[in-house]
Write a structure and sequence with these properties.
Number of helices of chain B: 17
Oligomer: heterodimer
Number of domains of chain A: 1
Order of helices and strands of chain A: EEEHEEEEEHHEH
CATH architecture of chain A: Beta Barrel
CATH architecture of the domain at 92-348 in chain B: 3-Layer(aba) Sandwich
Strand content of chain A: 25-35%
CATH topology of chain A: OB fold (Dihydrolipoamide Acetyltransferase, E2P)
CATH topology of the domain at 92-348 in chain B: Aspartate Aminotransferase, domain 2
Strand order of the largest sheet of chain B: 1-7-6-5-4-2-3
Largest sheet of chain B: 7 strands, mixed
Largest sheet of chain A: 6 strands, antiparallel
Distance between the termini of chain B: 27 Å
Order of helices and strands of chain B: HHHHHHEHEHEHEHEHEEEEHEHHEEHHH
Shape of chain B: globular
Shape of chain A: globular
CATH class of chain A: Mainly Beta
Helix content of chain A: 10-25%
Radius of gyration of chain A: 14 Å
Distance between the termini of chain A: 9 Å
CATH class of the domain at 92-348 in chain B: Alpha Beta
Largest interface: A-B, 14 and 12 residues
Structural class of chain A: alpha+beta
Bound molecules: pyridoxal-5'-phosphate
């Protein structure tokens, strides 16, 4: 798996794509593989405030419910409504159509995230396949 | 497969047996002029249409449900190694005592003087649980472990408020059962997860860091933890919490590992729940509801739910006068029938018997651990108590996952272990045999698991396709979760 280079990654397996002040957040392909088939996604409300590394939602798979942590801080401006009817988008297209939320990012809160290459090295170190 | 199961395999839903006009009753001849209910009940109690109720005879109903019951796997059938759930045998003596008319036919609104025996029984059970846990007092009201957790955390909240020290954070290790964070959130707290150490235990450095802010109301921790590993620093953790004005909640789901050997009270616990349907052999569902008594230290006694049973001389009363109580958490006095069963179990085993029970649970789990450790990987190899958690990493090399192993086990006639929990173990297979079974059943289980490990190496396709001998093959769990059909309709066939 090669990870898109246009974005940054968190060790808790989320990605962030920054465009001006807006950051789009999703989970990585590795994360969706670990979760297995996703059956339900619970996202924060538009207008709510995310703290960096704070819990921002839940993803329920056949196996378990897992928390998603916010890789950046900011105010939620849009959530991916398509996931309500089609949670499987997280499995089929985690880096694209399966995005979770867009936030008006607190400036600089994306500091110290990993590049694609660094994230891949991190996965290799963790013994992930 | 025996005949009953072969037939049960074809059993549909009761609606399939319906035949127009067939009934399961006989009425005497009518001696008055007939009335048409469509007229007499119109506008009062008449439903427009009752859709598709099955029209069946008594024998149709009996056979249908009897056959379905033959498909059930239960503790009466064999080893039920569902980790964390403690699926132990439910002694018949408990059932016999719970059915004594003087207990079974009591009405919860009978006056106290008519139910002295029942009150005494509840009081005795509380005394026994106090002696076992080393805590100050116990409420018997909650209807399950998770309900007990909520009761406990509401008491913590009340105590914080009472001390004028409202706090919003509850710390929970990443190995916890999902009910712990769910409880904390439900009780109005924010959850902060603590990463476990590499040994899978509580990280005291992390605990100290999180305590610095002064906003922590409690730590919720399972002892022994969900890996079956005793928390060696639990007393230190309790002291650190108390120093900061926070409480220690011990999830007592695993109390069966140390009854009669150690006491949560001595570890510094302030509050804990006890699943009577785990440690104390009352049935899990099917045979009845659960029961999740909550034990508290002196610090929380005044917040216990009302009523408590009090003794004055040789009279027992229900005491409601507890001004700081969090109130009632359940109708009447809890699931009374379960309290009878649990006390029967405690009294029939006695102090030494309970200790032997815990030792037997630990022995059996370690016997299985030894028997399987060549074939399955142990992600946390430290000493374990009443359960053992393997993972599927060796089998994954052959493309077989924990779920495939669990399904294959059905073909060998065993209930599978708990899977994919605790969350800190990827591909977990969590095995808890309990003390109920003898060495022959444990050997049969070990042989089946080893045979499956061999199949994973030699014929992984076989394991991935399991089960083969069950009434239904592998179900589409994803579709069932994404678009569940919750009600039968003729059109949905
Ligand atoms: C560790 C742990 N905590 C809490 C619970 C919840 O208990 P109950 O199922 O009685 O609500 C369980 C149940 O399996 C458990 O294993």
């Amino acid at each position: 798996m090669s990870y898109p280079e246009d974005r940054r990654y968190a060790k808790s397996h989320e990605w962030v794509l920054v465009d001006g002040n807006t950051a789009t957040i999703g989970i990585t392909s590795y994360a969706q593989e670990q979760l297995g088939d996703v059956v339900f996604v619970e996202l924060p409300a538009v207008g709510s405030t995310l703290e960096r590394d704070g819990a921002m939602g839940n993803i329920e798979s056949v196996k378990a419910v897992s928390e998603v942590f916010a890789p950046v801080a900011g105010e939620v401006v849009e959530v991916n409504g398509a996931l309500e009817a089609r949670p499987e988008l997280l499995n089929t297209d985690p880096h694209g159509e399966g995005w979770l939320v867009r936030v008006n990012m607190a400036p600089g809160s994306d500091a110290n995230l990993l590049t694609a290459a660094e994230y891949e090295a991190f996965l290799a170190e963790e013994g992930a396949h | 497969m025996n005949g009953a199961r072969g037939r049960a395999r074809r059993e549909g839903v009761i609606f399939d047996r319906s035949s127009p006009g067939r009934v399961g009753y006989q009425l005497p001849p009518l001696e008055v002029p007939p009335a048409d209910v469509r007229q007499t009940l119109a506008g009062v109690a008449l439903r427009g249409e009752i859709e598709e109720l099955p029209e069946v005879s008594e024998v149709d109903v009996l056979r249908h449900f009897h056959r379905l019951s033959q498909l059930n796997y239960s503790v009466d059938e064999g080893l039920y190694p569902l980790g964390s759930c403690t699926m132990k045998y439910n002694p018949r003596l408990n059932e016999e005592l719970a059915r004594l008319p003087g207990l079974a036919q009591l009405h919860p609104l009978q006056p106290e003087e008519q139910v002295q025996g029942a009150l005494e029984l509840m009081w005795e059970l509380e005394q026994a649980l106090v002696a076992i846990t080393g805590m100050a007092r116990v409420t018997l009201q909650p209807a399950a472990g998770a309900h007990g957790e909520l009761t406990g955390m509401l008491m913590v909240r009340a105590a914080c408020r009472d001390r004028n020290s409202p706090r919003s954070t509850v710390l929970i290790p990443d190995s916890a059962h999902g009910t712990n964070p769910a409880t904390a959130v439900f009780a109005g707290f924010k959850v902060v997860e603590i990463a476990s150490t590499s040994a899978g235990t509580l990280d005291l450095h992390a605990l100290a860091r999180h305590l610095e802010g002064g906003d922590v109301a409690a730590l919720m921790v399972t002892v022994p933890n969900t890996l079956g590993v005793f928390e060696p620093e639990i007393a230190r953790a309790a002291a650190m919490l108390h120093e900061r004005g926070a409480f220690l909640y011990i999830d007592g789901a695993n109390l069966n590992a140390f009854v009669g050997i150690a006491q949560p009270g001595a570890m510094g616990a302030d509050v804990m729940h006890i699943n009577l349907h785990k440690t104390f052999s009352t049935p899990h569902g099917g045979g009845g509801p659960g029961a999740g008594p909550v034990a508290v230290s002196q610090a929380l006694v005044e917040y216990l739910p009302v009523p408590l049973v009090e003794r004055t001389g040789d009279r027992w009363t229900l005491s409601y006068h507890r001004p700081k109580s969090i109130g009632k958490v359940r109708g009447f006095y809890g699931n009374f029938g379960m309290l009878v069963r649990a006390l029967a179990y405690i009294r029939s085993l006695g102090r030494d018997g309970l200790k032997a029970m815990a030792e037997g649970a630990v022995l059996n789990a370690n016997y299985i651990r030894k028997g399987l450790e060549e074939d399955y990987h142990l992600p946390y190899p430290g000493a374990s108590l009443h359960e053992v958690v393997f993972d599927d990493s060796r089998q994954l090399a052959h493309g077989v996952k924990n779920v495939d192993i669990a399904k294959r086990l059905l073909d060998y006639g065993f209930h599978p272990p708990t899977m994919s929990f605790p969350l800190i173990v990827h591909g977990a297979l969590m095995i808890e045999p309990t003390e109920s079974d003898g060495v022959e059943e444990l050997d049969a289980f070990i042989a089946a698991m080893r045979q499956i490990a061999r199949e994973c190496r030699e014929n992984p396709e076989l394991v991935r396709g399991a089960p083969y001998t069950t009434p239904v093959r592998r179900l589409d769990e994803v579709r069932a979760a994404r678009s569940p059909i919750l009600r039968w309709r003729r059109s949905s066939r």
